[in-house]
Amino acid sequence: MSDLVAREADTFLDEFLRAAVHDVGGPLNQVRALAGLLCEQHKHALGEDGERLCEYIETAAARASAVVEAIQGYLNVPGEPAAETLEVADVFETAKAELGEEIPNSKAVVTTEAAGRVKGDRQMLIALVRELLGNAIRFRRAEGAVVRITAKRGDRWLECSVLDNGIGIPAEKAEIVFKPLKKLNGFEYPGAGMGLAVARRIVKAHGGRIWIEAGAHCGTDVRFTLPAAD
Predict the structure, then answer these.
(1) Do 93 and 201 lie in a common domain?
(2) Do 137 and 178 belong to one domain?
(3) Which of 27, 154, 157, 162 is the most buried (most CB within 10 A)?
(4) Which pTM does this prediction carry?
């Protein structure tokens, strides 16, 4: 696919998603409000089956709202990020800290190894690493997540890696997972299928690229490049 065709496809997708968020968001909020009112005031009158249906409605509406919010977050990624000089180690550690209790509560082991500086938007890059780290923790195996985040310097780029021991991504799905709203595991795991799409959008805004590295023994190795600051 040529760069021109790819840009046109991205523009069309953005326009479609913006229209969908606009057209669906308002009615969805009304459905949630009315369903909440119905369940609050008349749940007991509806009987046991009615109470169960109310729970289903509330769960489904909350899930739909989460999808709309995730799409909005994707669309809100700036196309022209700030060009700050950042210590990549600080970006990694701040992303870890922003996950709060999620790391200790999941008993995940997260290590970072990075040196050097990167040129980019601090908040966007923290969000990028936070999203990838959150995915690594979310899609873990029963024995718990072990995640290693690294960066190494090339000629003009830093190549970063978020390597985990989780459930992995099939090789044939390694590209499609970066498309918006693509979930490989249905509702078995939480999320709207937008995380890797947001990650790619952030990386592309910085002129880099992101991919799933082939050949990982187990788990997933997400690689991405960012412009080096010096």
Answers:
(1) yes
(2) yes
(3) 162
(4) 0.79
Residue type, 135: N
Distance of CA 5 to the CA centre of its chain: 25
Q: Is 215 left (phi over 0), alpha (psi -120 to 50) or beta?
A: left
Rounded distance, CA 202 to CA 77, Å?
A: 7
Where is the domain boundary, 54, 75, 96?
75
For the chain, how many residues are written?
230
CA distances from residue 79 to 29, 54, 119, 212 in whole angstroms, order as listed: 28, 41, 15, 23
Count of CB atoms situated within 10 Å of the CB of 125: 27
CA distance 213 to 137: 18
Spell out the per-residue pLDDT of the chain, length 230, in tens: 556 555 666 666 767 677 777 777 778 788 788 878 877 787 677 777 777 888 888 888 887 877 777 777 777 777 788 889 999 999 999 999 999 899 999 989 999 998 889 999 999 999 999 999 999 998 888 888 899 999 998 889 999 999 999 888 888 988 998 988 777 766 666 666 788 999 999 999 999 999 998 766 678 999 999 999 87
The amino acid occupying position 138 is: R
Q: Which domain holds residue 36?
A: 3-75
Last residue of a domain, one of 48, 75, 102: 75
Q: For residue 103, give the CATH number of its domain.
A: 3.30.565.10
Q: Which residues lie across from 152 on neighbouring strands?
A: 159
